[in-house]
Amino acid sequence: MNKNLKTALKIIVFFAIGIFIFWLAYRGQDIDSMLNAIKNTKWSWIILSLILGLIGHYSRGMRWRLLLEPCGYSPRDVNMFSSVMIMYLSNMAIPRSGEFIRCGITSKYEGIPFAVSFGTVVTERIADMLVFLALTIVVFATQSNIITQILNENPSIGERLVEMENNIPWIIAALVILAIAGIFAIKFVIKKNIFGIGEKISSTIKNFKQGVFTILKLKKRTQFILHTLFINFVYYFDIYLAFQAFSFTDHLTASCALTVFVLSTYGVVVPSPGGMGTWHFLAIELLALYGVDKDPDGRAFALVTHGVQDVTFLIGGFAMLMLLPLINKNYKPKSKNEPVTQN
Fold this sequence. Notes:
13 helices; 0% strand; 76% helix
């Protein structure tokens, strides 16, 4: 099958999933009542949330720059920020594709080997996962009544969690076996240089390891930690600011915002473009637990909050995509020292 056709089919499938879940969340909605709810939005809070979000995206770019510096590279801030915005744009088309796209951008404009960039991205994700895990524990500890209510109203969730718990040992065993088999297979290919790709694989692995373990050589660890905490704080506080924009949510507390942020984020795990549909559905259901009417208030909140974010990614991502060639027209990347080379 043609590569472009495969890509097109993936985009269609992912959008179909998002649209279907979006339809489930908004079916039967009285459009006029939802529009009336949206008309009363205090847009100053939404704009403030938007500005804070952009600062958070810039912080993500600067954190990535910190990880690339020990590898011998000093990429420009504008390229780091642009790659992050384009990453979000790409995720709106194909979920999880953005990480690969931003690594490709740094490879093209900064001359950084793809494997090195991707290795640092893995380190970033591990750091974010640790922070998010801590926030999840906080939510379960402080909002146990809400969690219990969710499980009582959706018994299938509890059954699936029990099923997953019973299968964890088997899943871990299978992953370990696959990992060991994969390592031996890669070592064999490298040693025998099968199809002449052994050296290429060896070089790629070295670059990838250099990126992953750059955290061990990171001199600005405090800055890295602060950026990581700030990025996750921005995601959370954007929800709280959005609460202030609506009369039906402005009474909700910061702890409510944390619960909505953490639990709705798990909806983004479902492969839909930018969490379309899945995030809306979870946000509406969670707000209902705090007494916010699903129709039209909860749906209006989800539509405005996520919609403004999507418009930001569309405009910002496309703008950076168009401007990058002009910004880097006469730019020659410099490295502080010689990094691991890629054959």
